[in-house]
Structure formats: C-alpha cells, structure tokens
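User: I'll paste a sequence; please echo it back and then give the predicted structure.

Assistant: Echoing your sequence first, then the prediction.
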Amino acid sequence: MFQRTVHPHRANRAGGHRPPWRLLVESAEAGTAISNFDAFRRAGFDVTTCEGPAADARECPVVRGEACPLVDEADVVLFDGDGDPRVRARLLAALRTRRPHLPIVVRSAAAIPEAVDCATLRPTTSVGGQVSALRKAVLQWPSRQA
C-alpha cells in the first residue's frame, strides 16, 4: 500500500486558479514521505505524497484503471521520472490517461518519451526552481484541470 502524507497550506482552499493548490508528489524514493515541503507550502501548495510502485507498475491503482484519490484530487503533479524506466513510463502514461489535462512536471535525469505534454526539470533543479515550474504549470493550464 502506498503512503499518503498531507502537508497542508495554512490558507483555506480557494479553487484551482489561486493557492492553495493540491500538489501530488509522486516518487518511488523511500524518503519522499518525510521530505521537508515547507517551501512548497509557503508557495501555496497543499502537498500530498505517494511512494508509488518501484518494481511493478500494476501495484498502482491508476495503472490498473482504478480510481485513486491522490490523483483525482490533485491540481498538479511533481512526478519523479527516475527509477525503473519501464515502471515510471507506464505510471506516467496511466496518469495522462486518467487525467489528460492535469498539469504534470516531470523531474528526471533521462528523457521520458511519455512526458511529451509535461514540463520537465533536471533532478538537480533547486527547490525554488521546482516551485516556479509547478506554479507556472498550474497557472498556464487552469482550464485543463479536469
């Protein structure tokens, strides 16, 4: 089972066009749930984490075609593309199928063909750079939040 950790922003939910936005951080890294997301919260994001599948993509309900409240409630996703390329590609493709207009920012050292409609970042991008990319993704595609 995947962990769900919510790091809420102090303000009330104001809708998809203004903060706080619901950010899903999807990463197979074991330390994701205990990461410090203060900079993201200060920027207006309610942060939820998912330590998605590392070895078998079918462990993810979205890959199996099932509902996932983490994905269904997100306004934007920060997707860690590093790890097993087949698993990460399959998971990203499933996210795009489930929510085709959901803004996704992919953080990866290697190019991922499934990330065609996604903003991409290098894994060495600063936290400030990641926050900027996420804000831009949300603000650029407010009508795409379906």
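The two ends are 26 Å apart (CA to CA). The first strand starts at residue 5 and ends at 7.
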